[in-house]
Structures are given as structure tokens and as C-alpha cells.
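Box S2. Input/output pair 1.
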Amino acid sequence: MTLREGVVGAWPEFLAVTVRVAVGGALLFAGVAKLRGGRERFLQVVLGYELITGVWAGLIGRFLPLAETVVGFGVLIGFITPINAVLAFGLFLAFALAVTHSLYRGLFNDCGCFGSRTPVQWRLVYRNIILMGLSIVLLGAGSDAASTDALLCGSANCLRSASPAVMGTLLLMWLATFSGVALLRWRWPAMMRAKQAE
């Protein structure tokens, strides 16, 4: 094998690891930041979205940071990669929809992102949509050679990519989210003018 063949052959593995670090690192960092900020502070963030109240808000406030941390760590180390990639996709989808809902309703509440007190804004929606797309890429790539899956199975191919049905479903969900947000963002100025005229 020539050096060129070795470098070209290593690109898919390098990209899989890079995507895994980006997706897993984002979730792990966000989850740990929320845990460090305290349950009461994050509960106030959850309530600020005005989507849920009461017991449900308490459950989300308690378990969402833990879920982000566990899924993020699982993705980061490449443990049960296909399942954690789907869970990561679901978390990013929920975040994108929650922020979009707040923007649509004119609630410029604290997003609760990475422990900072940043108000919701469109760039956060875009970031979550990008991370959703990267989760699909991760799911398609399956377990790479540098993953825990490969270490436990003795082969990088033991937990290969998800079924075409799962991939297709997530891709359609991503396209629907992307299209819906793009349409809403395009209509945003007219909607804001109409709200101000009321």
C-alpha cells in the first residue's frame, strides 16, 4: 500500500471520529454545564420555554441534563454508536423545536445552552439542525476503528450503520425540520410586523 492509498483510506475513519467528537462533545459539554449550574436554575430555563409545567417540567429539569451527559459520553467514546446517534438526533430535534417555538411566540428566554445565559436566537436553531445532520452521518458511519464498540467486538464492523428504514426516517425528519425552519425564517419579518401592528 502506498502512502497516498493509506491517507485516502484513513479519511472515512478520521471523519467518523471527527463527527463523533463534535456530536458527543456538544452533548457532553452541555449536559455537564447544566448539571453544574444546578437543578433549580435549569428548571427555570425549562419553564421559560412555556411548553410544559408542573411535574413534567420537573422531570425534564432533572433528567434532561443527565440524558445529555450519558448520550454525549456514549457518542464520544463510540459506545453502542447507532443507538446513541439516534438518541442524539432526538435531543437535537427537541432543542431545535423548543427554540423555534420560543422565537415564534416572541419569548426571548434563556436557551439553557452550555450553561450560559444566552437568549434564544436563530443561530441556536441552525446549530441544532447541523448537529442533527451530523448525527445522521454518525449513524450512517456506524462504529469506527477508534470506538469502544470496535474494542469490545474486536472489529469496527460489529455495529455497522442502521437499517435503511431508520436512516430514511431520520433523513425525512431532518429535511422536514430544515424546510419548516427555513420557511418560518423566511416569513419571520412579515410575522413580526403583523404582531407589532396588533
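Box S3. Input/output pair 2.
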Amino acid sequence: MSGCVSHKEYRTAHKTCIVKQQETLCESSSQEQHDGYLLNFVEFDDQGLLWDREQLTNVVNTLRSQEYLDSGVIMIVFVHGWQHNASFDDPNVIEFRKMLRRVHKLEYLAAKQEKRSTRKVAGIFASWRGRSVPGDVISNLTFWDRKNVANTVGHGAVTELLLQLENVQIAHFDADKKKGKHNGQTRLILVGHSFGGQIVYSALSQVLLDRFLDLEGEPPQTFGDLVILVNPAFEAGRYAPLRDASLQRKYPAGQLPLVTIFTSKNDGATGTAFPIGRWFSTMFEQTRDDVEEKANRTAIGHFKPFVSHSLTWEKEASALTVPIAEDKKRSLEDESIELKHIENDLSALPALQKEWSQKSSQNGWALDFGNVKLTHLKTTDPLNPFYNVEVDSAIIDGHSGIWKPEFANFLRQFIVFSVLVTENSSETGNTGLHKE
């Protein structure tokens, strides 16, 4: 159709492209090898099918290679949302590269500090046609069309991608055990934004629930090490079964988060447009009461009965970390500032973990991440690993403000705190699935 963004595969070359001075040489490659990290692309069509299975095969084979088994790997999956795709200069692709670069620097410094080998870093950019027409004004009218496509994609081959990556992690655990290392070093972190959050939840909701229920009496396990959904565009009612199950059990001391949802208070797409559209699409559906009806029409992050935590901007920075406000006046891309943040993340970690061990069982606990405070709102067990977090607009500004420095810095610290631990400190972190 004239005026539409092509329904096509962007990454058609499946040999690894070694990025040198000109990144544009890799604009059609499904594997970009950068200094310090590997960026992989796996694309899905509007029916939820893989555009080319070779994309998936290549990333799995690479991550299962002896080189990666020997080093261990930090895998970060990002599923983008509305108005994005896998094109070389897509803003989400650019920001994801920055994120991977920072994780590599963090891992390099941590390994040096702890006198161990450095794990490799691999990003997987799971892409679909989030932008169907060019131009911001017209594109804004495609919200509900893209939501329907995201629902289809989430019930398609994305589940296979995620489970294949989890099998990679299990293979790494098995390889570590053969070396006498019983706390696997390979990590798997999943991030979904907007309709990407809907895709992730659609792909994994039943997996999450089944695993959670199957392990009653044991520490809870869900998917990989950490699932993060930012401004996700799905109904609160779809989250209800998992939330209800999480309220029925007890958790071990020091339990860290497993599934976290972060939604900005001023996200107009999910806060305003979403319930209006859902009102029209559900007006003939039957619900048993007003609460269920509202849950069926309200995005998960804006449904007050399910909100469990808050993320607030504090004027006075904690002594644990470098004040982000100072760095905002300069470029966060400046190497020295970036390294300062990363070094500070590492130096703050022991104190943060100690604080968590002391506070985590207390109703209403609060943790400081620099200028950002994460607070339990006393609506769930304080150790419940399912977080639905209401976020100040100073941290995430609107629907697409996920790369705002205030949130990017917090998220990096949150991931370090939650999962990027070494064998020597693994008792304080999530360790994913450990299959015998």
C-alpha cells in the first residue's frame, strides 16, 4: 500500500558483520559484532512467524559455541514497541547498542575487580513491524492496529525464541557444572517496552504461571533471571491470574525481583488512549463486577489495586551513588562520566545488598538507587518477586521516555542489584533455572 512502511525483513544478511569505523556497513546484517558485545536481530512478520529461521539459528549456535560456553555470557533480550522496527538507525536500536556497551564496561570492571574472566555480552533485538506508516501524526493513529498485531506476534514464534535462549542458558549451566562451578555465570534478562511488553507477556504468561505453581514450597522460578516490562500496553485483567497466584505463597528471605513492570504516571498512550479504546472494544463483554470491568479496560500499570511499588525522584541523592542530576548537565556519553556511573554501581552494590538483607522482609521497605527511591507500598508480601511499579514522570517521561538518563541509570543499577552477581556472591542474586 502506498504510504505504508514496508512489511519486510530488514536484516537479510546472516553472516556476522565486524563493526569497525563505519557501522552502516552492517545495516543489513542480523549479527553486528561490536567491540565488547554482539548484537543479534530476530525478526517476526505481522502473523507472528519468523521472517527467516536462519536469524534464530545463527544466534543460538553462536551462544552455544565453545567460545561462549568457556566465557559465560550476559544475554539481554529487548522487544521493542509501537513505532519501531529493526532498521539500522531506529532510535531503539541505537539506544540498545548504548545499553549493551555500558553492560560490557560494567562486566569488564567487575571482572577486573573480582579477578575473574570477563563474560561476553550478547544483545538480542526481537523486532516486528511496530511502525506501519511513516510520519508521527499519521503513525499515532495506528495504535490499535499495532496492538492487535502485537497480540498476534506474542502468540507466535516469540515464545520459541525465548525458550531457545533459556535452553542456551541451561546448556551453559551444564557446562559450568562439568567444570565444578555449581552457580552458573550465564545470565538471561528480558526487556519489553510498550506493545513489546504485551508481546513478552503474551508469549510467557502461561509459562510464568505454570512454573510458579509447579514449584510450590521451593524458591519461585519464572523465566531466565529477570523480566522487565516498561509502559506495557496490556490489560490489568490479563495479569490477574499471575498476581493472584503470587499472593498465595511465602517467599524465602532476601528474595529478589523476578518480574517487574514499570509504568510512568504520565504515559498518555497507556493511561488515556488505552482505556478509551478498550471501552469501545469491550462494551458488549460481560464482567461480574465493576472492578473486573475496570481491570479489563485499564492498562496494567495504571490499575491502582494492582500497583505494588513506587519509583520516585528524590532531591537529595543517597550517599551510595553519584548524583545523576550533576551528570545531566554534561553528556552521559562522555567516557569519564559513564565510567564513573559504572564504577559507582559496583562500589554501591555490597551496601545495597546488605541494606536489602536487612529491609526486604519489612512491610513498606525502601531502597535508594542514587536519586531514585524504590518503595514497597504494603499491598503485597514485601518479598513478593512480582513488582508493578508506578514511576514518577521525572524518571520516565511519557510513553517513549524509557531511555531518559534518569531511568537508564536506575535500570542499570537495578539489573546489577538483581542478577549480575558473581559466583562468590550468588547467594544474593537470582540464578535463573538450574536444571539437573
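Caption for Box S3: The radius of gyration is 21 Å. Residues 319-330, 422-429, 431-436 have pLDDT under 50 and may be disordered.
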